[in-house]
Task: structure prediction
Amino acid sequence: MPRLVNHDEYRQIITSAVWKVMYEDGVEAASVRRIADELNISVGKLRHYFITQQGLLGFALDAITERVSARIKQHRLSARSGDAAAIEILGELLPLDHERSVEVSIWLSFLSKARHDKSLDELKHRAWKGERYVCRMAIVATAGWSYEGRNFNEPFHNAEVEKLADELHLFIAGLTIQSGTYPDKFTPQVINIYLRDHTVRLNKELGDYA
Amino acid sequence: MPRLVNHDEYRQIITSAVWKVMYEDGVEAASVRRIADELNISVGKLRHYFITQQGLLGFALDAITERVSARIKQHRLSARSGDAAAIEILGELLPLDHERSVEVSIWLSFLSKARHDKSLDELKHRAWKGERYVCRMAIVATAGWSYEGRNFNEPFHNAEVEKLADELHLFIAGLTIQSGTYPDKFTPQVINIYLRDHTVRLNKELGDYA
Result:
């Protein structure tokens, strides 16, 4: 690692190392020692940035959240709608390329850890809300409704529409764990077929609402 | 631990300890040392039974597979059919009581580990087939077809029906990870509502086939 780097660059370098280890060997493997080894720096130096493995995990997750949020925001700004737009929005959560595969892998490792670690409860529930946000946005896209003035953090006023968001959320969770665990069966092409089929069905069920 | 126990009892005692640790702290925590501590025996003694953590994990998973298979076999023997039977069959894979919560927890931890450990590939794919078996059986149950002479290890002859098994499999995967991760949101009552709704829809789509 070069001696003179600014704080942001340093964070970026550390993030890459954390992500690499988590992707290759899982969250548990990403100890402060292992990351220090990966970066070829002392544990003491790394501890200036992260005291605990918890800190490293939070850091990796914040990076995921930022990246996914930025991509979702782009979709919102483009204001495209229809089935194809909905599929692209949902696809931001799925392993459709290397970047997203790394994200999903870290994501699932985090959920696994969060099942046994109460200190991750708040993060876990924040994660749930983020996913639901994306599902609601995809529903609005596929229905062709305007994004204008909508708060995707809030449930739909119509309980039947919120129920569709609920089912979509469950479907995306299933597709995430299956594609993350069985990448041989769930190629990007297969994932897109599932997304398309579900979106077509969703659209039929949304037909009656406005 | 009593000095004189037969081999089966000993395995039973070890299984309980492995399960307890995996349930409370995750698969990663269930090292040979930790299990030995839990049983208050020496690592050397435990190593007569398990050389590695892999061995412990395989042991815990075999125990799950045996238990789930035995319950599924009972359903098959009872030969009950209809929506209620299908819901009960699928429910064997979900955290509807303490026993199944422990199973699901270990199961998800295993999948998480299997994403980073190629040596678990065969076990991971065997797990997939077992789940698909249960999904096919639930489809036959909800459609009211006879179990007689069916091999649930094989895809349905009708590709459209197999596609419904495929979607059911994905739905169950989603319900498993969500209920395992967010037990506060997915109470047994909520899980059963999801199962009922999905079975009702499935039944409608199965209406045209025989």
